[in-house]
Specification:
Helices cover 71% and strands 2% of the residues. With 540 residues, the protein is mainly alpha-helical. The chain folds into two domains: 271 residues, no CATH class; 236 residues, no CATH class. The strands form two sheets. Strands 1-2 form a two-stranded antiparallel sheet. Helix 12 runs parallel beside helix 16 and helix 17 packs antiparallel against helix 18. The radius of gyration is 24 Å and the shape is globular. It starts with a helix and ends in a 9-residue tail after the last helix. 51% of the residues are buried.
Length: 540
């Protein structure tokens, strides 16, 4: 197999920063979750009460794992395993597309195919690279759990189970890269498969059968159509089942085999899903660069808006659930106090979920700016800039559409929250004011991510995509989990979503608003001013 070792070494070198970041981040999330659980749910009675609440209110299971008992290890797995598996899945899917379809678009794959390596060896090297990346993630996650004092078998089941889900999505990414002729389309398919299967797993758990003591749930059949469901049914620190891992590995092998067969039957650069032919004459509205940016990015924005609507519905639906849990469980009340500055329980639910919404909105804005980098790298920005459109106006179009996407995501959540309130038996319409305040605050917070990513695009264009998404991930960890993990306030408030205006028991806290607005104004102005003199940066 000529060139396999060299191609594998090239992939390892290229991802020498990205893969360790994913793997170490996953292990740190497991470690920090243990710290939070040990502080907030240190007694078996606390854990049993929360598990009973989850079993009695299935909506909680949409965002958590599969309850397997009140043992501390099993409880940590219930809280965190879906997120460990999700990180492995994102890492693997992006890795697969980056080294397959991402190599074909600029023409590098065609050059390699003209060597003795041929067309199949690079794909096999990518598969081996994906397996090694997930093995590193599994080992680091397992070692983090062992360091917490958990039993070795359960720790390894948790680490390998998360990596096994990652392998399935490695296969998904490989097949998506064969199906679509652009890395953008392949990545979009991978993300949608991930989100849909994650939701199916949550719904399957919510429809499952709880035990008599409400400490364990047996999944319904719907869970078994999702790789996340297979991973969760390993039940680390409870059953330590190995066969779901074998199932994941088998499905991953089948998907990889399908990708190899498809690779051998298509032309280089082509995909099995044809691109939709464009109009002979563009609509008059596309004469402006702003309209062109919207045309290029609206499908992704619509997806984030749907996520915003669902978040808004669940925020108001879950408010009563958290209220019931906190009335019987002091540790839940303590968590709400830490996150919501002593507001009411219903306000706490709104603040928590709209903080999550700030991450969704930020991801929408960052994705739009990343599209600007993709257009530049693929050479399609150059024809636009060769016309009467200058660089500043071109970038301003992406920033403006990114901001519009943020506003639309938040607006979708407000609509969802209103609909959720309307379906409650006794709706508290005063919560709608809290929704508007927290939602408006998250517009400012998400806009900080937008302008910082735009500034990175101008100053260091090749770092736009990895650094933009890394900032979103750090903002999520600090803003959503920082208070639970006991991080100091100054560190938590480095995340814009944690510094956004919010509601408290005393009214509205606007302390962070002015800093966020200042950061947005300065970041936008700096990125546009510096763009005036920047040359185009091709892919590299």
């Amino acid at each position: 197999m000529s060139g396999f070792g060299a191609l594998l070494a090239q992939r390892l070198r290229r991802d020498r920063v990205q893969v360790p970041m994913w793997a170490v981040g996953t292990a740190l999330l497991a470690l920090l979750t243990y710290v939070g659980v040990h502080q907030s749910f240190g007694t078996a009675a606390d854990r049993m009460a929360l598990l009973a609440t989850a079993a009695a209110n299935p909506v909680v299971l949409l965002f958590r794992g599969l309850p397997s008992g009140p043992d501390e290890g099993a409880f940590v797995a219930f809280l965190i395993f879906p997120f460990l598996a999700m990180l492995a899945a994102f890492m693997s899917s992006f890795l697969a597309v980056r080294h397959t379809r991402g190599e074909e678009e600029p023409g590098r794959a065609e050059l390699v195919a003209g060597t003795p390596a041929g067309r199949t060896t690079p794909l096999l090297a990518t598969i081996a690279h994906g397996v090694l990346a997930n093995a590193v993630l599994a080992v680091l996650t397992a070692l983090a759990l062992v360091a917490c004092g958990f039993p070795g078998p359960g720790s390894w089941i948790a680490g390998v189970g998360a990596a096994a889900v990652g392998l399935v999505f490695l296969g998904v990414g490989l097949v998506a890269a064969q199906a679509f002729s652009t890395s953008r389309g392949a990545n979009a398919l991978g993300v949608w498969v991930l989100l849909v299967t994650y939701l199916l797993c949550g719904i399957g758990n919510a429809l499952g059968t709880p035990s008599a003591d409400l400490q364990r749930i047996e999944s319904s059949w719907l869970t078994w159509v999702s790789p996340f469901g297979w991973g969760e049914n390993t039940r680390p620190f409870a059953d330590d089942a190995v066969w779901p891992i074998v199932l994941c590995a088998a499905v991953a092998a089948v998907l990889a085999g399908v990708a190899v067969v498809l690779q051998a039957t298509r032309d280089v650069g082509a995909g099995f899903v044809d691109e939709r032919p464009g109009r002979v004459h563009a609509r008059p509205v596309l004469a402006t660069p702003l309209a062109l940016v919207w045309r290029l990015t609206w499908p992704g924005i619509v997806g984030w808006i749907v996520g915003g609507v669902l978040t808004g519905v669940i925020a108001t639906k879950l408010a009563s659930v958290l209220g019931q849990a906190a009335s019987a469980l002091p540790s839940v009340q303590a968590i709400l106090d830490a996150l919501t500055k002593d507001g009411s329980l219903a306000q706490g639910a709104i603040v928590i979920f709209f903080t999550m919404l700030g991450i969704l909105a930020a991801a929408c804005g960052v994705q739009v700016v990343c599209r600007a980098r993709q257009e530049e790298a693929h050479g399609t920005a150059e024809p636009v800039l060769s016309s009467a459109v200058d660089r500043v106006r071109w970038l301003a179009g992406y920033v403006a559409v990114g901001f519009a996407g943020i506003v639309l995501v938040i607006a979708g959540a407000v609509v969802g929250a209103t609909a959720g309130l309307a379906t409650l038996p006794a709706p508290d319409w005063t919560l709608l004011g809290d929704v508007l305040v927290t939602g408006g605050g998250q517009v400012a917070a998400a806009s900080v991510f937008l302008v910082v990513t735009a500034l990175v695009f101008v100053v260091a264009p090749r770092l736009t995509i990895p650094l933009g998404w890394t900032l979103v991930a750090l903002g999520m960890i600090l803003g959503l989990f920082g208070a639970l993990f006991g991080f100091p306030d100054w560190l938590v408030h480095l995340a814009p979503i944690a510094d956004a205006p919010t509601v408290t028991g005393a009214g509205v806290d606007l302390n962070g608003l002015w800093w966020l607005v200042l950061a947005v104004v300065v970041g936008a102005a700096a990125s546009l001013a510096l763009m005036r003199r920047r040359e185009l940066a091709p892919a590299g």
